Amino acid sequence: MTVKLVKTQEVQILLDKLSGLDQQAGDARLKAIVRRIVGDLFATIEDFNISDDEVWQALNFAARGSAEFGLWAAGLGLERFLDIRADAADAAAGLTGGTPRTIEGPLYVAGAPESVGYARMDDGSEEGKVDTLILHGQVRDVNGAPIEGAKVEIWHANSLGNYSYFDTTQSEFNLRRTIFTDADGRYVTRTTLPVGYACPEGGSTETILKNIGRHGNRPAHVHYFVSAENKRHLTTQINIDGDPYLHDDFAYATRDELVPPVKRLTGGALAERCSVSGEHVEIQFDIMLHAASSKQEEHASARPRAAG
Ligand SMILES: [Fe+2]
Questions:
Q1: How many domains does the chain have?
Q2: C-alpha 108 – ligand 1 centre gap (Å)
């Protein structure tokens, strides 16, 4: 079936009216956006011969599943698309050399404990059950100059794939820290090696993905917000190399430049500094920030976020 009804005068007038185009009041850009979205929805209903029952079922599903809209944004590629747009804008502006961005996901929590140079991120509750990870690196500008006082916010899941705050069995801000880089632009953290996780079983995201033949798994990863004065805010992640879902992420966040080598070591200077004895894992992740061209660029997007 091809779209015919939507093109009729009757439906076109309806679209004009429902999007407020026949009213003086209201925002012109918003009217145009509403008209486009609703018109595309009407065309989809007509084109795929979607039944009344299916329309109401879909609205009810969206209403009931709305608590997971953050995961829908990841799983349906919306976050990835926003990154593709931002990357395209950078390419058009000739911006190269910075650490690549990748999606934020819905699990950031503001207010994590702050320190300078070093932090231990885990509360010790998984010690001995999971690999200890020493994660470190240097923050530089695109010319290679170290940035002192850069704000490195790190958050990741525990060995069950769960995040503190959202998982109320974990201590407050477990596996979440804010580290300001030292005089050499360096940060060091002792934490636990995260594992990958899946969308909640039986939740709306998993239901959608299952019905279109997809899975809702993410490879193990660590989230970063990195910011500094006069530098562009960076939202990124690193993936843990070797994860079976490394190149099969349901959120499409994996980027080859964001898979640093994983070293398995015993002892060493960093282990000593972090009071780690025995075998552990070390990952170095250096970050390069672009100069900000406006004050707004120094901050993360205005996405609503949880605060602990
Ligand atoms: Fe995550």
A1: 1
A2: 8
Domain-located, residue 83: no
> What's the CA-to-centroid distance between 66 and ligand 1, angstroms?
19
> Is the pTM of the predicted complex or chain greater than 0.90?
yes
223 CA from centroid of ligand 1 (Å): 6
Rounded to the nearest angstrom, the distance between the alpha carbon of 30 and the centre of ligand 1 is: 32
Question: pLDDT at residue 200 above 90?
Answer: yes
43 in any annotated domain: no
Report pLDDT digits (tens) over 298-307: 999 999 999 9
User: What is the Cβ-side half-sphere exposure of residue 153, based on CA atoms within 13 angstroms?
Assistant: 19
Query: How far does the centroid of ligand 1 lie from the alpha carbon of residue 27, in Å?
Result: 36
The domain of 294 spans 97-307
| CATH code, domain with 215 | 2.60.130.10
Question: For residue 116, is it within any domain?
Answer: yes
In a domain, 63, yes or no: no
How far does residue 253's CA lie from ligand 1's centre (Å)? 10
pLDDT at 167 over 80: yes
